[in-house]
Design goal:
The protein is built from five helices and seven strands; from the N terminus they run H-E-E-E-H-E-E-E-H-H-H-E. It is of the alpha+beta class. The chain has a five-stranded antiparallel β-sheet. It has a two-stranded antiparallel ribbon with strand order 6-7. It starts with 11 loop residues before the first helix and ends with a strand.
């Protein structure tokens, strides 16, 4: 079970430890985002992403995905190292800093998603299948609801998952962005 990053500061020890063997300077690191991971801006055009413990496979998939997306004409930041560095029990990945930016406008994000959905599924590495119900049980358990309400939500989520799994999709299998919300796409000046 992963522990969500709340302040981001709890990822600093892993960042400092990972930067030494990676050869990056963390002395002026600035936390720029803290949700599931701690995202840090380093000097020399580097962004460090400190992942949750136990997510090494996911970190490796993110690196492979970035190379694949870039190779297919999708503008993404490229990894600065081909493998995560493990520090303080967490995978840490290093990326090219695209500089200051803002969430992409809806039209640009839509164009990127359309392009993504028409790409062939990668053959060099395996992407996880999308499961929109993967975190429901943990999210329901964490709610401030009564046991009866949690039971109803859990049963209803199970029924919805069964219906989801039984769907026959009218389109071929494709790559999707699992969390395409405005904060996860970025417009830059370049």
């Amino acid at each position: 079970m992963s522990t969500l990053t709340h302040s981001g500061e709890e990822t600093l020890p892993a960042l400092l430890e990972a930067c030494l063997p990676a050869g990056f300077d963390a002395s002026q690191a600035q936390l720029i985002r803290a949700l599931d991971n701690g995202i840090w801006r380093l000097t020399d055009g580097i962004i460090a992403r400190v992942h949750q413990p136990g997510t090494m496979d996911r970190a490796r998939t993110e690196i492979s995905s970035a190379y694949w997306l870039y190779g297919n004409g999708i503008p993404v930041p490229l990894p600065r190292r081909p493998e995560p560095v493990v520090a303080d029990g967490r995978p840490v990945t290093f990326w090219t800093d695209l500089g200051p930016g803002a969430p992409a406008n809806p039209a640009d994000a839509a164009r990127l998603l359309r392009t993504l959905h028409h790409l062939p599924v990668p053959a060099d590495f395996r992407l996880p299948s999308h499961d929109p119900f993967a975190r429901f049980r943990a999210q329901i358990a964490a709610t401030h609801a009564t046991s009866e309400e949690k039971g109803w939500l859990t049963a209803h989520a199970s029924q919805l998952r069964e219906l989801w799994l039984a769907l026959e999709w009218p389109t071929p299998r494709c790559v999707i962005h699992g969390d395409a919300e405005p904060g996860n796409t970025m417009g830059t000046s370049s």
